[in-house]
Amino acid sequence: MYQVRVLPQDVMFSVGEAETLLSAARRAGLAFPHRCQVGACATCLCRKLAGEVTYRLAPVLTEKEQAEGWIFPCLAMARSDLVLTLE
Ligand code: FES
């Protein structure tokens, strides 16, 4: 299990290695923006400020977007504790 801190609300939730960040956030009762849950709508897009994620199916992100920390929580799985921002 990893710990995920979400800014600017500064709330925490736990996520297992095999579940997506969105799934874990919703299980924890967080109002995490989402629609399609399959990496198509970009509604869930947020920035990772710290930590590592991996994808079973890599979403379409440019190198610049990846360098800026953009991730798809509906597809991303944690590989370390994380800090995310919804700002
Ligand atoms: S919920 Fe649509 S891309 Fe993540």
Structural write-up:
- The structure is a single chain.
- The chain has 87 residues and is of the alpha+beta class.
- It has one domain: Beta-grasp domain (Ubiquitin-like (UB roll)).
- The protein has helices at 21-27, 63-67, and strands spanning 2-7, 11-15, 46-50, 53-55, 70-71, 76-78, 82-85.
- A hairpin with a 3-residue loop joins strand 1 (2-7) and strand 2 (11-15).
- FE2/S2 (inorganic) cluster binds at residues 34-37, 39-44, 72, 74.
- It comes from Photobacterium halotolerans.
- Residues 2-87 form the 2Fe-2S ferredoxin-type domain.
- Belongs to the 2Fe2S plant-type ferredoxin family.
- One of its GO terms (molecular function) is 2 iron, 2 sulfur cluster binding.
Write the layout of secondary structure elements.
Layout: E1 2-7, E2 11-15, H1 21-27, E3 46-50, E4 53-55, H2 63-67, E5 70-71, E6 76-78, E7 82-85
Parallel strand pairs: 1-7
Antiparallel strand pairs: 1-2, 3-5, 3-7, 4-6
The structure holds FE2/S2 (inorganic) cluster.
